[in-house]
Every structure is written in structure tokens, then in C-alpha cells.
Amino acid sequence: MAMIKRLTVLAGAASAVSSYVRRNPEKVNQAVGKAAHFVDEKTKGRYHTQISGAVRKVSDVTRSGR
Which domain of life is it from (predicted)? Predict the structure, then answer.
């Protein structure tokens, strides 16, 4: 039963995040950009391509209004 409770909590959190993204796409893009810059800096650019790809995907999702 504990697993079902965890899944229910995760589903609720996913729903809340989705709703927030729809209402505040510019804030989400700004936060993702800052996080990407921080991680890129800490990893000394080793994962720059992967980080850039993730940022592009987030940007695509926030622009399309999914």
C-alpha cells in the first residue's frame, strides 16, 4: 500500500508542476536556464551538449503550451 500512496503523491506533484508550467512559461525557462548554467559551470562544460539539449526540450514544451 505504501507504493500506491507514493504514486498518488507523485501524480499530484506532476499535475501541480504541469499547471505551473502552463501559467508561467517564462519563469520556468528562466529557472531552467539558471540551473543549466550552474550545472555546466560545475561540470566544467563536460556535459554542455546534453544540458543544452535538455534546455531546448524544456523551451519547446513551454512554447507549445502543452
Answer: Bacteria
pTM of the model: 0.74
- For residue 58, count other CB atoms closer than 10 A to its CB: 19
41: left (phi over 0), alpha (psi -120 to 50) or beta: alpha
Distance CA 63, CA 54 (A): 14
Give Cβ neighbours of residue 48 (< 8 Å, ≥ 6 apart). 40
Q: What is the pLDDT of residues 28-63, one digit of tens each?
A: 999 999 999 999 999 999 999 999 999 999 999 998
Widest CA span in the chain: 43
- For 6-15, letters b (16+ CB in 10 Å) and e give eeeeeeeeee
